[in-house]
Amino acid sequence: MSDNLGDDMSENVSKTVGEGSNDVMTDVLVVGGAGVDTIVRVDDLPVPFADSHVVPRIDTVVGHTGSGVALGCHRLGLATCFVDVIGDDHEGAMLRDRFTAEGLRFEHVLHQSGTRRAVNLVDAAGRRMSFYDPRHPYDLAPDPSLWRGPLEGARHVHASIMPWTVGALADAAGAGATTSTDLHDWDGHNPHHRPFAYAADLVFVSGSRLGSAEDDVVADVLDRGRARLVVVMDGAKGSRVTVREGGSFAVAAVDIPGRPAVDSNGAGDAYVSAFLHRWLGGGDARAAARAGSVAGAWACGTAGTHSSLIDGAELGRQLATAYGGAGRA
């Protein structure tokens, strides 16, 4: 089987039964980023060196960024389609089963290298350290029909930062759809992230590695790219939003009464999905960031990745609690 999925589609690739349903209107098309997480709970990070550690039950769950954004948007009521390359393996079956159970439209092609996976260490405070296995060859290039069909009628495209998905951002811009991406723990220098930083309308990035360079990195993205705004997500420090025509503001992290943080896996993806929900619903950047903060905090209240995603009704209740009338969804 060739690593280039465009070489011989009939022989090397199979598609889901959703093929041919491109007349369906889609609010959000998520491209790339499906995978499976194995969660290992430890007392502290970093883990002291030892021959072995006894840990609580190890769980393997549907995870990764594209899954989280797609499931989060779907749970919030947005018409969502998710497309990706996965393997014909146990992990790929886990993904298909979860998305079918959720009623999420998932179109995919298969590749011999398998399904992405990660092992995530999570400490008692909910902090995580992820060991990511991307599986696919870096130069993998699926046939663009994977996303071009579902792109027809899509309002918005969110691309995970697999190398091949940047093409979906270009196609979306050409089709008049708005776009977004999450750069995760970009340091502002790694060249892998740069094409995504400059190609999306809404750019999300973790503050974990930006440090004192944050202002310069945000300014560079706005100066050299097409971004309307850049959102720096920074966990317990909240988020910081810079709007091309509207300056900058900060949104504090939210504590949800009776729901302490136990696991930060998937919090950023929950933030992005709720931000998109509010933004595509006509909300401004501040309202969208508040929704993201609530959804991220909600995701941290349950162990595992994407194991308890907030729905629209709960988001509205929590926004009203945190922000009063101004925060209602």
UniProtKB/TrEMBL annotation:
Keyword check for Transferase: yes
Protein keywords: Kinase, Transferase
Residues in Carbohydrate kinase PfkB domain copies: 25-308
Enzyme class: transferase
Alphabetical list of Pfam families matching this protein: PfkB
InterPro entries named among the record's database cross-references: Carboh/pur_kinase_PfkB_CS, PfkB_Carbo_kinase, PfkB_dom, Ribokinase-like
Domain of life of the organism encoding this protein: Bacteria
Family (UniProt): Belongs to the carbohydrate kinase PfkB family.
UniProt name for this protein: Carbohydrate kinase family protein
